[in-house]
Amino acid sequence: MPAINQKQVLKQLQKLSPQQIQMIKLLELPTLQLEQRVKQEIEENPVLEEEQQTAEESTEDNGMPKEVSMEEYLKEAETPAYKSYVNNYSRDDKARQVVLFEGMSMHEYLTEQLSYREMPQEQFEIARYIIGNIDDDGYLRLDLQSISDDIAFNYGKEIDIPELEEGLRVVQSLEPPGVGARDIRECLLLQLERRSNLTAAQVLAKRILENCFTEFTKKHFEKIMGRLGISEEQFRAAIEEIQRLSPKPGNLYNEGGNIASPYVIPDFILDERDGELMLRLNSYNVPELKINRKYADMIRQMAHSSGNPSQEDKEALQFVKNKIDSAKWFISAIKQRQDTLMRTMQAIVDYQREYFLDGNESKLKPMILKDIADMTGLDVSTISRVVNSKYVQTGFGIISLKQLFSEAMQTDSGEEVSSYEIKNILSECIDREDKRKPLTDEALMEILNNMGYHIARRTVAKYREMLGIPVARLRKEL
């Protein structure tokens, strides 16, 4: 049996303080989530409150600033606003409230239409259950057998597949056309079937979708024309009809997006005036914070009260001190967050000055996180947290900070260019190509190599996919 020994071991560990952990978490938050986090902290900590101080309240009768003389906790009780006014505001700025509202969702719209239909109650419930399983694009991704099993498990009702098919037909008859389809082929056919007095091109488009959909998706156009015995002109007219249909009917109601989704709120605002770039933080909706004076007065009274305090008074005093500590830590973390954000973004603006002046992507310099880390003296991981999910509002649109970072490519002359320049050249080459014979990745690689950009075929494929451009075979047109 091994002996049991005790020994002392000296270890050096690196641990983050609570304030550092809080700072790291706050640094990652974009403006909208920071606003929610600040409001949450105000609700959880009674010592914190929003700053609503006026000029009269901040001065004595003789015009001199008020001074609060308190020990340790009370010295910083009236903590100044955490915003850096020099960086964040100009004289023209006015605090404005952003009103967020939410419209009717597609599912609510479908349910409302369903309520106007006359049908048995059981069929209504089936159709409503099917609507609940439709995704935001307007598709029913579950098969009917799975829906039948779900109803049996959740409600103890046995629903036959024919009954579900009848309910699905009701849903597919609602607006927008194509909703409730189980695949894109059915979606397109539903839209064509809604139309009355089909033209010859629309009838042919329906035949193509019904009989040659696989060949159509693979763009085997010659095979389709040979099978259906049609001319190229007839086929082109049918293709134009198919292209007018929507592959995502759910977006027809939401005008291309979900109206209930949150807007992108920029974290920085960059203005250009007479060739000068002026950067500020967008903090309109983030309230200024201070420590509630009532709790400071409470500590003052307890500290100067005579006699031995009771156990309850001691606990109350400790509670208030802890809350004041927490509030000061939070305000300090907010201040440090904003200082770090401004420091990092200013370095990015200085590095990419030519791009920010006119928004020309070809002027974007190759830039990686380490470049900004070296300029600011911050760690690369800190720069990564600042860049993540942050946006800057410029005169040419709202830009994601991640979009500003790119790899460096070297030309024959030894000059380093941004990968955005390579992507722009690829996009231009594909726009100018003969759509009857699209350029392959190999051909695009040769074009770039001839222009002095040494790039491999797999890199061309990677950039093409990043641009959302399909392979040559799927870009083929008549």
From TrEMBL:
Domain RNA polymerase sigma factor 54 core-binding: 102-295
Coiled coil: none
Keywords: DNA-binding, DNA-directed RNA polymerase, Nucleotidyltransferase, Sigma factor, Transcription, Transcription regulation, Transferase
Region Disordered, annotated ranges: 43-65
Biased composition (Acidic residues): 43-60
Cross-referenced Pfam families: Sigma54_AID, Sigma54_CBD, Sigma54_DBD
Domain RNA polymerase sigma factor 54 DNA-binding: 318-476
Keyword hit for Transmembrane helix: no
Family: Belongs to the sigma-54 factor family.
Name by which UniProt lists this protein: RNA polymerase sigma54 factor
Native species: Alistipes inops
Lineage: Bacteria, Pseudomonadati, Bacteroidota, Bacteroidia, Bacteroidales
